[in-house]
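User: Hello! I'm new to structural biology and keep hearing that structure can be predicted from sequence alone. Could you demonstrate with Exopolysaccharide biosynthesis WecB/TagA/CpsF family protein? Please show me the input and the output so I can see what each looks like.

Assistant: Of course. The first part below is the input, the amino acid sequence of Exopolysaccharide biosynthesis WecB/TagA/CpsF family protein. The second part is the output, the predicted structure written as tokens.
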Amino acid sequence: MTTVAPTQAADALTSVAAPSGDLPKRDLFGVQVTAAGPEPVVDQIMGWAHDRRSATVDFMPVHGLIVAVQDPEHRARMNDFDIVACDGQPIRWALNKFHITGLKERVYGPTTMLKTCERCAAEGVGIYVYGGRPEVLETLCHNLIEKMPELKIVGAESPPFRPLTEEEDIKAIKRINASGAGVIFLGIGCPRQEIFAAEHRAALRGVQMCVGAAFDFHAGAVKQAPAWMQKRGLEWLYRLTREPGRLWKRYLVTNSVFVALFTRRWILGR
């Protein structure tokens, strides 16, 4: 998505200083990944959300990691995020293997979205949902409120798939900031949502969480992989069998690159 550059947005609106991350990061093939489990990640997000601090959070699967490895511009973008959580099981395995982090579970984006919503509902923090088709967004909001009646959804927006004009972009920033949201969930796909978060970090108040397919999952539009497949790092295989035409290159190519990088570092130590 083409958006207003941070300097333009900052000129149009009052920017908020971004926080420095308190959670440790470790290097995986040149990408800085947060070495923390689900609870510390949610605690950190909520600490920022209460103050409406500008922060960027990503949930990185293997595909996202390899995109960052192969694209220097995107790698620099991701290394500037406050939290880059290990969404993919293989990333957790790599952190444990090469950095002895002792992580017992991954930080799965869709699950972390729900946990964050639960905390927001309990602690009175408003959320804003940005992305998804209109019908998906409507069902998502309905399902979240049904599960958590106290949750304050202070804004929901389905942006057009075409690039926003500068005027539209500035108005979107103003709407989000005026809503009072402490957490902003972005569901506009990878890497569009990461680009959006990075470009708007200087202007948006609140924690931007790039949650990808979580909107579709929680709206019931797309089924998640069975738990046993998720635990074994086979979620990619489940999604591939359901959408082979769209996903075969993403998973077969990027997974192969990950295996090659993992093996080389394991054997050669680099």
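User: So the tokens describe the shape?

Assistant: Right, they're a compact way of writing down the 3D structure. Reading them back into a model, for example: Residues 6-268 form one domain.
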